[in-house]
Specification:
This protein folds into two domains: 103 residues, Jelly Rolls (Sandwich); 104 residues, Jelly Rolls (Sandwich), CATH 2.60.120.10. It is 12% helix and 53% strand. It is globular, with a radius of gyration of 21 Å.
């Protein structure tokens, strides 16, 4: 009798675990996550959750950074942990270690929007000592703006840049590629050494992947302040 009860309990537990597993989807199958870019370095999703709606339970297999677009209030329900409420500001940027599943519930009356950037080389970064950046933290005062180097994770340097109209990022070199996430609408002129100037126009929430190997200055040629987040790869 006891063995039969134990068998029934084990079967019930197996059914429950199977149901939980079946209810969890990969991030690529979560309907609020819209694939925007994928290469050897990153996989980028544009995320939008309507007011008082929620994502499906989905798994993050990689470390990632997310950039909030607009102020929001979100309940983060990580599987196996108590819910946590996050109040996020426009442009707020966070790093999150991967290998977990969660539901994101929008508690606000406005859409919850962000850009989620997965680091596809995170396992390699965990196992291999990476070279240090020349600067890994600090606020730089620019000509008509600021550059705030917020953190380095998995060898990726993440900075927030604010430029007033006419503001300039002085001459600097990009050895590796970088990803730009526009927090506001942008009109940026890039003056690359040895090449004609180019203009890059982005809307808030747009992304741009830019290969490295050049030196340039950047000027905000728009009529409004420009804010964006840059992720630099070695």
């Amino acid at each position: 009798m006891k063995s039969r009860r134990l068998l029934c309990a084990l079967l019930f537990l197996g059914i429950m675990l199977a149901a939980q597993t079946a209810s969890e989807v990969e991030i690529t199958a979560e309907p609020h996550h819209h694939a925007a870019l994928e290469n050897a370095y990153v996989r980028v999703f544009k995320v939008e959750v309507a007011p008082h709606q929620a994502t499906l339970m989905h798994r993050h297999r990689h470390d990632y950074v997310f950039v909030s677009l607009g102020a929001s209030e979100v309940e983060n329900d990580v599987a196996g942990k108590p819910p946590v409420t996050l109040k996020l500001q426009d442009g707020e940027t966070h790093f999150t270690p991967g290998n977990f599943a969660h539901i994101a519930k929008n508690l606000a009356d406005t859409p919850f929007r962000n850009v989620t950037i997965e680091f596809l080389q995170d396992e390699k970064a965990h196992q291999t000592p990476l070279p240090k950046w020349d600067e890994e933290r600090g606020l730089q005062v620019l000509q008509g703006g600021t550059k705030d180097i917020m953190f380095v994770q998995d060898g990726v340097r993440v900075s927030e840049l604010d430029l007033q109209p006419g503001g300039v990022i002085p001459k600097h070199h990009h050895a590796g590629p970088h990803l730009v996430v526009a927090v506001t609408d942008l009109g940026l002129r890039s003056d690359v050494e040895g090449k004609p100037a180019t203009l890059r126009v982005l809307k808030a929430g747009d992304i741009a992947w830019i290969e490295g190997g050049y030196t340039h200055t950047v000027t905000n040629v728009g009529q409004q302040p420009a804010k964006f987040v840059a992720l630099e790869f070695q």
